[in-house]
Amino acid sequence: MKELKQIKYWLFDLDNTLYSGDTKVFDQVDKKMTSFISDKLNVTVEAAKKIQKNYFHEYNTTLNGMIKNHKIDAQEFLEFVHDVDLEFLKEDTKLQNELTNLKGKKFIFTNGSKAHAANVTKKIGIQNLFDGVFDIVDANFVPKPSVVPYKKIIEKYRIDPKYCIFIEDIARNLKPANALGMKTAWIKNNEPWAAEFSNESFIDYKIDNLSEFLRRINEQK
Ligand SMILES: [Mg+2]
């Protein structure tokens, strides 16, 4: 933990990282993706689910699979799938406090959209606490864990990976961060697609609760 006092750049994933997966917000996004596929490709919901799963597996995001195979309008997709009910997302004063006290630059690094990040962070009450949001459009639709967006965000915000930590719920997305010299922290969860590779050595920290993790860093002298 002590080495984390040296951190100057904090990268946070958005969904299921800055808020808990228990809120089921991302489940809604997931369902909207299914319905988008079902509509666009004119297939049943069951068939759409299979396609979605395959694309996520092969292309790391459903969007990428849809772009590569069906030339869909990415903006239309992003707007549709992120139009979800955020009612269950509550203001998180603990996270507000810890992010406020955290020294250094803070960025959101997401495979989702800026609009979704704005909606979510506003609900939690942390919308003014970041120095930037790097989304899938900034990434030119090349999602994590391709190393390409990691290099892009480093360049865009002039991040020194040696003094940077990336915090994420999908374990495999931490691998490129580690390879580039960043510290990595995994938000523990039981989703098979997110927990896969969580026992690999490219993970430095495993976190039960993000606010608590940040509190322990903040209270170190
Ligand atoms: Mg996530």
Question: What does this entry look like structurally?
Answer:
This protein is an alpha/beta fold and 221 residues long. It has two domains: 2-20 and 88-218, HAD superfamily/HAD-like (Rossmann fold); 25-81, Orthogonal Bundle (DNA polymerase, domain 1), CATH 1.10.150.450. It has ten helices and six strands. The protein has helices spanning 25-41, 45-59, 62-70, 74-81, 93-101, 114-124, 147-156, 175-179, 192-195, 210-218, and strands spanning 9-12, 105-109, 132-134, 164-168, 183-187, 205-207. α1 packs across α2 (45-59) and α2 (45-59) crosses α3. The longest helix has 17 residues, at 25-41. The model has no long low-confidence stretch (mean pLDDT 96). Magnesium ion is lined by residues 13, 15-17, 169-170.
Q: Which descriptors would you attach to this protein?
A:
about 220 residues; binds magnesium ion; single chain; globular; alpha/beta; Rossmann fold; 10 helices
CATH level-four homologous superfamily name of the largest domain: HAD superfamily/HAD-like
Structural class: alpha/beta
In N-to-C order, the SSE pattern is EHHHHHEHEHEHEHEH
Strand fraction equals: 5-15%
Catalogue the ligands: magnesium ion
Poorly predicted parts: none
CATH architecture of the largest domain: 3-Layer(aba) Sandwich
Span from first to last CA? Answer: 11 Å
Tally of DSSP β-strands: 6
What is the CATH C-level name of the largest domain? Alpha Beta
* Major sheet: arrangement of strands: 3-2-1-4-5-6
Task: Give the CATH topology of the largest domain.
Answer: Rossmann fold
Shape: globular
Number of separate structural domains: 2
The main pleated sheet reads as: 6 strands, parallel
Mean pLDDT across all residues, rounded? 96
Whole-number radius of gyration?
Answer: 17 Å
> What is the tally of helical segments?
10
Oligomer: single chain
